């Protein structure tokens, strides 16, 4: 009987902690297709992810994301409030990688993200406090 109450309580917390157009839409694996490069030598705007790159963010329902940058893995806690999104306690492995610029860009982007927008249920834009797009992802 206690187990039933715990399950109901857990589901209630999950349901009421997510509002319309928030965390339920984020759940799952998103493939990074463009990102804001941190180097001054990068072109203006977003940089394309290299062809064949398996770079992704996976939003779990416990408030934790996992990040795959093709070489290193990362994780972070995330919080959603409406269209606001913040990351904290971000950590990454530190293997030497071929595409270190992309790796470093993602590490610097995550703490700066403050909002998100989803279009057509399949394109995710991660934005800074001034609504500049820092990363574009697809389902």
Automatic annotation (TrEMBL):
| Pfam families, alphabetized | META
Residues in DUF306 domain copies: 48-136
Q: Which domain of life is it from?
A: Bacteria
Concerning Gene3D superfamilies, the annotation shows: 2.40.128.270
InterPro entries named in the record = DUF306_Meta_HslJ (IPR005184), HslJ-like_sf (IPR038670), Hsp_HslJ-like (IPR053147)
Cited PANTHER family: DUF306 DOMAIN-CONTAINING PROTEIN (PTHR35535:SF2), HEAT SHOCK PROTEIN HSLJ (PTHR35535)
This protein's name: META domain-containing protein
